[in-house]
DNA sequence: AAACTTCACAACCGCGCTCCA
DNA sequence: CTGGAGCGCGGTTGTGAAGTT
């Protein structure tokens, strides 16, 4: 379809038409009325023409640019060029530390509302911020680091909660805290009810919490990025990936166990994801089959779609750290997608409980990355230095999968997960992180002490990759509270609640985080009145149970 | 030094909203 | 009320630079 560029037609340019359908392979607009609209990089001459136009006519009416300036660019392109590069007072260059901090905070509050974020950053464009964020996300996810510093999480939560209380859930100042768009996070509680109803039936499914699903989805943390409607990779596709990655017996995971996998992805993982992380490694394949956690790694990705989509992994697998490829793990899938997948998965799972052997597949999770290498070594060092912390921590530091099962001993404070931003932390030996240790342990069937080199533990060469201390590299100062959100048990573990008082000064914040239902249980827990996992299903139980599952993978 | 990979940025694309006739 | 125009936004893609093998 010809690009209409004549004066009479200019105003009636079909939406966006000037750019896409009109452009031929030469990247130039097709002739519409004999005019070719140019695409691609702008020249200085074009810039000058555009600036001249704006000086004369002001901003806006971009489709008139071509008419008045002789610029063979569509209005949209002109607007973009002006907004991102030519308008005055644009600040160029790297983001300052302050700007970075602000971006992180704003993103925690707003999600992928780049334009709104840009409004808070004078001289910066939405595109700049978006690019910055996306690349930062990639770095962090590759490193398995949380997207947000804990303090930012809490702050965002606090603010969002406050806004909810004052403004209302959906009403009001949308312009500031999109986090309030709770509708985006709402999941019918029926989903969880349904799951809970089957708790006793599902051997590997942890009890489900009494926490309303909508609450679980962190009213707060959610950023629209988690909620973008992104096509869910069909379960089959995931499984196909798994099978491709691990052809052979391990592929048995796909035999009727997809649902479970999906279920886990959609629950445990995403809950964890909801906290802003992506597990650094395939934490424990055994726990979640091939993708219990790992899948998610790509997750968030970005859902900002950034996860450019789930590229199927195939053929020769180059083992790397989690990438955004695994969009299927995106939290958004869980949230934005209709509940159906989850329910269906559960149903399917109920119908076909997983064979125990299926866990073995994960021993060779593709997403066990070389990160393990460095981390394991570091974690060993770290663990030895942390043994002083407490018996509990020491227990966990020598954790075997079974030990980990006793996650009641978890204490993220002690473990200093703490060292947020410390690439070691997420995998710290002393931590009880399921993410960190289970994979190698379960794969090797031995404790950390006897652990084989990460490169060989699954018989697969794992490419080592330096940890990106994204946070610190971002000039973020690790600050209190040193609560790592990359560790699900950090948030969900039972004992942690008791022990974390020193970490979480304002417990109400946390209660807020998980909503009132959590608050109730939490209080019980904190009071020592409820140390069982009852009612904590997805929370503590989920994590606590994992090691048990993990042990299954120890089987030859 | 060449090939390859990764990164960062600019630009494009499609969707949806608002306004107005 | 409806449909088109204009525009903004968020996601995606393309590309060159830098780094690595």
UniProtKB/TrEMBL annotation:
Localization of this protein: Nucleus
GO cellular component annotations of the record: nucleus; pollen tube
Presence of the UniProt keyword DNA-binding in the record: yes
GO biological process, one term: regulation of pollen tube growth
SMART domains (UniProt xref): SANT
Entries under CDD domains matching the protein: SANT
PROSITE patterns: HTH_MYB, MYB_LIKE
InterPro entries to which the protein is assigned, alphabetical: Homeodomain-like_sf, Myb_dom, SANT/Myb
Domain HTH myb-type: 34-86, 87-141
Annotated ranges, domain Myb-like: 37-86, 87-137
Keywords linked to the UniProt accession: Activator, DNA-binding, Nucleus, Repeat, Transcription, Transcription regulation
Region ranges (Disordered): 382-406
GO molecular-function term, one example from the UniProt record: DNA binding
Entry superkingdom: Eukaryota
Main location: nucleus
Name under which the protein is recorded: Uncharacterized protein
Annotated source species: Carya illinoinensis
Lineage: Eukaryota, Viridiplantae, Streptophyta, Embryophyta, Tracheophyta
């Amino acid at each position: 379809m010809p690009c209409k560029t004549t004066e009479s037609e200019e105003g009636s340019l079909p939406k966006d038409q000037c750019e896409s359908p009109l452009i031929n392979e030469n990247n130039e607009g097709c002739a519409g009325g004999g005019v070719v609209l140019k695409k691609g990089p702008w020249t200085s001459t074009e810039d000058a023409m555009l600036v001249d136009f704006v000086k004369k006519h002001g901003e806006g009416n971009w489709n008139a640019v071509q008419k008045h300036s002789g610029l063979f660019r569509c209005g949209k392109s002109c607007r973009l060029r002006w907004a991102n590069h030519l308008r005055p007072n644009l600040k160029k260059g790297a983001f300052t530390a302050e700007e970075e901090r602000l971006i992180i905070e704003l993103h925690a509050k707003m999600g992928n509302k780049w334009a709104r974020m840009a409004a808070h950053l004078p001289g910066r464009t939405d595109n700049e911020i978006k690019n910055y964020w996306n690349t930062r996300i990639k770095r962090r996810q590759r490193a398995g680091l949380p997207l947000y510093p804990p303090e930012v999480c809490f702050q965002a939560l606090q603010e969002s909660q406050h806004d909810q209380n004052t403004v209302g859930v959906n009403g009001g100042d949308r312009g500031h805290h999109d986090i309030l768009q709770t509708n985006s996070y709402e999941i019918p509680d029926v989903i969880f009810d349904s799951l809970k109803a089957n708790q006793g039936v599902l051997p590997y499914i942890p009890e489900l919490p009494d926490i309303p699903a909508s609450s679980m989805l962190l009213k707060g943390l959610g950023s629209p990025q988690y909620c973008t409607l992104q096509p869910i990779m069909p379960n089959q596709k995931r499984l196909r990936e798994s099978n491709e990655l691990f052809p052979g017996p391990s592929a048995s995971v796909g035999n009727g166990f997809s649902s479970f996998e999906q279920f886990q992805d959609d629950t445990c993982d995403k809950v964890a994801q909801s906290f802003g992380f992506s597990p650094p490694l395939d934490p424990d394949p055994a726990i979640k089959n091939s993708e219990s956690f790992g899948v998610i790694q790509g997750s968030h990705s970005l859902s900002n779609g950034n996860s450019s989509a789930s590229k199927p992994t195939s053929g020769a697998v180059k083992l790397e750290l989690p990438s955004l490829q695994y969009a299927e793990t995106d939290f958004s899938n869980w949230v934005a997608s209709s509940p159906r997948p989850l329910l269906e998965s559960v149903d399917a799972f109920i119908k076909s409980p997983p064979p125990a052997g299926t866990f073995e597949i994960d021993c060779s999770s593709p997403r066990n990355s070389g990160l393990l290498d460095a981390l394991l070594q570091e974690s060993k060092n770290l663990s030895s230095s942390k043994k002083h912390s407490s018996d509990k921590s020491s227990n966990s530091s020598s954790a075997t999968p079974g030990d980990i099962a006793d996650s009641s001993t978890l204490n993220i404070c002690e473990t200093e997960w703490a060292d947020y931003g410390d690439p070691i932390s997420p995998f710290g030996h002393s931590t009880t992180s399921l993410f960190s240790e289970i994979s190698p342990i379960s794969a090797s069937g031995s404790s950390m002490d006897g652990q084989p080199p990460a490169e060989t533990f699954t018989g697969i060469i794992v490419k080592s990759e330096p940890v990106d201390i994204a946070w610190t590299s971002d000039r973020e100062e690790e600050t209190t509270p040193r609560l790592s959100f990359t560790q699900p048990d950090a948030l969900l573990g039972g004992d942690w609640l008791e022990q974390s008082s020193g970490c979480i000064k304002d417990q109400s914040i946390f209660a807020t985080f998980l909503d009132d239902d959590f608050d109730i249980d939490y209080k019980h827990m904190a009071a020592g009145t409820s140390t069982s996992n009852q009612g904590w299903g997805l929370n503590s139980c989920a994590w606590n149970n994992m090691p048990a599952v993990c042990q299954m993978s120890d089987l030859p």
